[in-house]
């Protein structure tokens, strides 16, 4: 295993799960979240890093309750399709302005942000095959 931070924003990491090269889920005694290596974190749009809790995304940390959706939507190949569907709804609910910007950047238009409240983004929006 590569050298990874053992101290997270939520305390000492007691368990880690690799989600492919450069993305690791850390659990602590009280909370957890994803660490995204710097070269990959540079691929996360600045407005999404800034929208993360306490702007921890600027340092590559995305907490497990809401910010995980940022990691899932930017790196959809690391997550199963049902997680992408859940991430769509989570980002829309918790960070609607960031979600709308994300939809616009994906070429889906601002109307998608309204539709997402009752649906999910199609997997093809992330370059993934449906079904």
Question: Short summary of the structure?
Answer:
The protein is of the alpha+beta class and 131 residues long. It has one domain (7-124).
Task: Characterise this structure.
- The protein is of the alpha+beta class and 131 residues long.
- It has one domain (7-124).
- It has helices spanning 38-41, 46-51, 68-74, 81-94, 96-105, 111-115, and strands at 7-8, 11-12, 15-18, 23-27, 32-36, 61-63.
- A 4-stranded antiparallel beta sheet has the order 3-4-5-6. Strands 1-2 form a two-stranded antiparallel ribbon.
- A hairpin with a 2-residue loop joins strand 1 and strand 2.
- It starts with 6 loop residues before the first strand and ends in a 16-residue tail after the last helix.
Provide the descriptors you would attach to this structure in a database record.
131 residues, alpha+beta, 4-stranded antiparallel β-sheet, two-stranded antiparallel sheet, 6 strands
Side-by-side strand order of the widest sheet: 3-4-5-6
pLDDT < 50 stretches: none
Largest sheet: 4 strands, antiparallel
The percent range for strand residues is: 15-25%
Rounded to the nearest angstrom, the distance between the terminal CA atoms is 33 Å
Helix run count: 6
Q: Topology as H/E string?
A: EEEEEHHEHHHH
Quantity of strands, as a count: 6
Query: How much helicity do the residues have?
Result: 25-40%
Look at the structure and give the mean pLDDT: 85
CA radius of gyration is: 14 Å
Structural class: alpha+beta
Quaternary class: single chain
Q: Please tell me the total number of domains.
A: 1
Which term fits the overall shape?
globular
